[in-house]
Design a protein that fits this description.
This protein is an alpha/beta fold and 274 residues long. It has one domain: Rossmann fold (3-Layer(aba) Sandwich), CATH 3.40.50. Helices cover 47% and strands 14% of the residues. The protein has 9 helices and 7 strands, in the order βαβαβαβαβαβαβααα. It has helices at residues 19-27, 40-50, 67-81, 104-131, 153-172, 210-223, 233-244, 246-255, 258-267, and strands spanning 8-12, 32-37, 57-61, 86-89, 135-140, 178-185, 227-230. A 7-stranded parallel β-sheet has the order 3-2-1-4-5-6-7, with helices on both faces. Helix 3 packs parallel to helix 4. The chain is globular and about 50 Å long. It binds NADP nicotinamide-adenine-dinucleotide phosphate. NADP nicotinamide-adenine-dinucleotide phosphate binds at residues 12-13, 15-19, 37-39, 42, 62-65, 90-94, 113, 140, 142, 185, 187-188, 192-194. Residues 12-13, 15-19, 37-39, 42, 62-65, 90-94, 113, 140, 142, 185, 187-188, 192-194 line the site of NADP nicotinamide-adenine-dinucleotide phosphate.
Length: 274
């Protein structure tokens, strides 16, 4: 079991949504944390909230869609903290809408932030983790990784890529001391990209709270879990069906209301700006 107390963590997406809640749960367990995102104001607010715990907090404004800023982020944190024990790739964009209604720039940016940035940050932090023979990379994917959903094809593609990439690297580096986990949340209530739609998810698709996601991150680190599915059971069964039989999975998506719900989100003016 890996303890979180005293660990140096880099968390992306630390300015708003579930990031600050994951940060609080980790810092309450004694972790030092670097928060990264574009909004300096959001990062400052999140860091101020963490000051009551008395551990080290660092904020690093960064645009993860810019390749040049990805390596610089790791270098900045290593320079300030001296080490990174845990990297949590949480920053993400939900680019929803009919595929051809999206600009190519939006699609490209989604792939950059959701998939290429986690790959790049991991690439730049791995040498240090391998040298210290200790480290953990936690990737916040989504149930969408397992359930290709209409009007969110690009998002689903990035999350599926993230989870399969994690599985591959985990096996490749088994025994090295560096561990890998993927968190697969369903629709998250209260804060974050789904909560901003102001829609209630159908019972068949379930939901989860930000605290449940944060607790899953803790469990993944402490117990070295490959994947943590954080959602009510119907969506979990759907994801299993999608893996066992893609055509059955597609039929279930229609019957369980995934297709209708996704269409409703788009009709609600759900195409989010980047
Ligand atoms: N909410 C859900 O229902 C749900 C469900 C499943 C999975 N997830 C996943 O959970 C993670 C967090 O989602 P959330 O709901 O908290 O989303 P959110 O409220 O939209 O927050 C996204 C975070 O990512 C950061 N970010 C976005 N673009 C960035 C960029 N170019 N460079 C650096 N940082 C960037 C944002 O900060 P700035 O804007 O300040 O840059 C913010 O901190 C995502 O990976 C998402 O896919 C969410």
């Amino acid at each position: 079991m890996t303890t979180i107390n005293g660990k140096y963590i880099l968390l992306t997406g630390g300015s708003r949504g579930i990031g600050p809640i994951i940060a609080e749960v980790l810092v309450a367990r004694g972790a030092h944390i670097a928060l990264a995102a574009r909004s300096e104001e959001g990062l400052k607010a999140a860091a101020t909230n963490l000051s009551k715990f008395g551990t080290q907090t660092l904020i690093v404004p960064v645009d993860l869609s810019q390749t040049s800023q990805q390596q610089a982020l790791i270098e900045t944190v290593l320079n300030k903290f001296g080490r990174i024990d845990i990297l949590i790739n949480n920053a993400g964009l939900e680019t929803e809408g009919a595929y051809l209604d999206l600009s190519w720039e939006e699609i490209q940016k989604t792939v950059e932030v959701n998939l290429l940035a986690p790959m790049a940050l991991t690439y730049h932090v791995l040498p240090q983790m391998l040298e210290q023979k200790e480290g953990h990379i936690v990737n916040i994917a989504s149930v969408a990784a397992k359930i290709g959903a209409p009007y969110a094809a690009t998002y689903c593609g990035t999350k599926a890529g993230l989870s399969e990439w994690t599985r591959g690297l985990r096996l490749e580096l088994e025994g090295s001391g560096v561990h890998f986990s993927t968190i697969l949340p369903g629709y998250i209530t209260e804060v974050g990209m789904f909560a901003r739609f102001n829609l209630k998810s159908p019972v068949s698709l379930g939901s989860t709270t930000p605290k449940q996601v944060a607790r899953a991150v803790v469990k993944a680190i402490e117990k070295d879990k490959l994947e943590m599915f954080v959602n009510s059971s119907p969506a979990r069964l759907l994801s299993v069906a999608c893996e066992l039989s893609p055509s059955l999975g597609d039929w279930l998506k229609k019957v369980m209301g995934v297709v209708d719900f996704q269409r409703k989100k788009v009709e609600n003016g759900s195409k989010l700006s980047l």
